[in-house]
């Protein structure tokens, strides 16, 4: 008998509601039985709970341990978001960052691979970016010194580096990957990125079956563009991961294709790598594939690998058919048209 899984759902802002609905439909068509639990945040959280990041949303995700999350907008220069919890209040730089921190999520896993008919010279690219997400320059420690000067703290700790390094090496082993590369700027940031690099290097010695390498972040950008086969699993501090994962997604065709998973000890939140795309929200032309592939990662995580494989096969088939390409891929298909084709292709025979 099919098991029903409980999964929290953050519908998101901008194109979020459109691509969430598409994802729910495709996962269900692939045979997964999911009971969705609304976890409002962003504009939806504000409208329904009077808060951008209600504590009830964090509690819902924690209770079920797994969430599908569509993108949320983050206001620029707003001072961030405050979570009110039983009289205590905690400030985070953004709603996304708040979800990650409140749930103790420590690594953002972003697989990026090329597509035969779509990615041209990057069809052979096949990497997994492991982005540390608890610290670095995004730790939210900023201060204004005077009207013309402000500074931010880049915080790096050995335990956080060890955790992301161990996760990356174990992931590489589990997925038959050959190499883990540490990406850094230790030639300039001797203490912070130096600590990151030293820690990842030490952890990697415990995995003798894996090849370990280290590359400066600027050289890594160059190599990604010039030699698409060069990297395999890449582990890096928060900010470099944020930037490199968008770069890699663009190389293979579109930000709209890239999935991601935020993993912690007690919860996992699956999301697309892109943002809320307010410029195309409500037009019915958003590419839902990034979130749908995040949904496939979710299915693997909850023990539904056959349904996950059906979703991925449906995406492969859709991307081989130019008539189903959305405008970000250079086509003219609408979200609904693509979703229906994906549902048909993913259906259990
Ligand atoms: P964005 O990723 O939303 O958009 C960048 C460009 O890519 C836009 O032209 C957009 O139309 C296009 N695009 C992105 N996803 C697409 C898709 N699925 N289909 C077709 N086109 C797509 O980045 P932007 O504009 O910098 O951010 C917009 C908002 O999203 C901001 O408030 C930002 O803070 C937030 N954001 C949220 C993230 C999350 O929730 N994880 C991640 C990144 C940004």
Structure, explained:
The model has no long low-confidence stretch (mean pLDDT 95). Helix 5 runs parallel beside helix 6, helix 7 packs parallel to helix 8 and helix 9 packs antiparallel against helix 10. With 349 residues, this protein is α/β, with parallel strands linked by helices. It is built from eleven helices and 14 strands. It is globular. The strands form three sheets. A ten-stranded mixed sheet has the order 2-1-3-14-13-6-7-12-10-11, with helices on both faces. Helix content is 39%, strand content 23%. Bound molecules: 1,4-dihydronicotinamide adenine dinucleotide. 1,4-dihydronicotinamide adenine dinucleotide binds next to loops.
List the main descriptive attributes of the protein structure presented here.
349 residues, alpha/beta, ten-stranded mixed β-sheet, two-stranded antiparallel sheet, 39% helix, globular, binds 1,4-dihydronicotinamide adenine dinucleotide
Helices and strands, with pairings:
Layout: E1 4-10, H1 16-29, E2 33-38, H2 42-49, H3 55-64, E3 66-69, E4 81-85, E5 88-92, H4 95-102, E6 105-113, E7 126-132, E8 142-146, E9 149-152, H5 158-174, E10 179-184, H6 192-204, E11 211-216, H7 217-226, E12 233-236, H8 238-252, E13 259-264, E14 268-272, H9 289-301, H10 305-319, H11 335-346
Parallel strand pairs: 1-2, 1-3, 3-14, 7-12, 10-11, 10-12
Antiparallel strand pairs: 4-5, 6-7, 6-13, 8-9, 13-14
The site of 1,4-dihydronicotinamide adenine dinucleotide (NAI) has 20 residues, from loops.
């Amino acid at each position: 008998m099919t098991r029903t899984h409980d999964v929290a759902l953050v519908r998101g802002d901008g194109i979020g509601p459109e691509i969430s609905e598409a994802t729910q439909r495709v996962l269900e068509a692939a045979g997964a039985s999911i009971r969705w639990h609304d976890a409002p945040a962003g504009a939806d959280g504000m409208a329904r709970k009077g808060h951008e990041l209600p504590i009830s949303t964090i509690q819902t995700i924690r209770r079920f341990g797994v969430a599908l999350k569509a993108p949320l907008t983050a206001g620029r220069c707003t001072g961030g978001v405050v979570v009110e919890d039983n009289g205590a209040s905690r400030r985070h730089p953004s709603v996304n960052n708040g979800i990650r921190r409140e749930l103790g999520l420590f690594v953002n896993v972003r697989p990026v691979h090329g597509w035969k008919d779509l990615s041209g010279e990057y069809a052979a690219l096949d990497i997994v970016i492991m982005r540390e997400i608890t610290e670095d320059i995004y730790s939210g420690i900023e201060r204004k010194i005077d009207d013309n000067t402000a500074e931010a703290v880049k915080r790096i700790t050995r335990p956080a580096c060890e955790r992301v390094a161990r996760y990356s090496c174990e992931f590489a082993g589990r997925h038959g990957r050959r190499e883990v590369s540490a990406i850094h700027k230790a030639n300039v940031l001797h203490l912070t990125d130096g600590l990151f690099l030293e820690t990842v290097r030490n952890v990697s010695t415990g995995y003798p079956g894996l090849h370990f390498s280290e590359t400066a972040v600027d050289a890594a950008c160059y190599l990604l563009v010039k030699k698409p086969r060069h990297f395999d699993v890449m582990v890096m501090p928060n900010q470099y991961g944020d930037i490199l994962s968008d770069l890699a997604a663009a190389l293979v065709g579109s930000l709209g294709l890239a999935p991601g998973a935020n993993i912690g000890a007690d919860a996992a939140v699956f999301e697309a790598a892109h943002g809320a795309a307010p410029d195309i929200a409500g037009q019915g032309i958003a590419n839902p594939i990034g979130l749908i592939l995040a949904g496939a990662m979710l299915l693997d995580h909850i023990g539904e690998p056959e349904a996950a494989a059906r979703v991925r096969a449906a995406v492969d088939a859709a991307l081989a058919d130019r008539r189903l390409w959305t405008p970000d891929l250079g086509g003219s298909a609408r979200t609904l048209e693509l979703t229906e084709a994906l549902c048909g292709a993913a259906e259990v025979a």
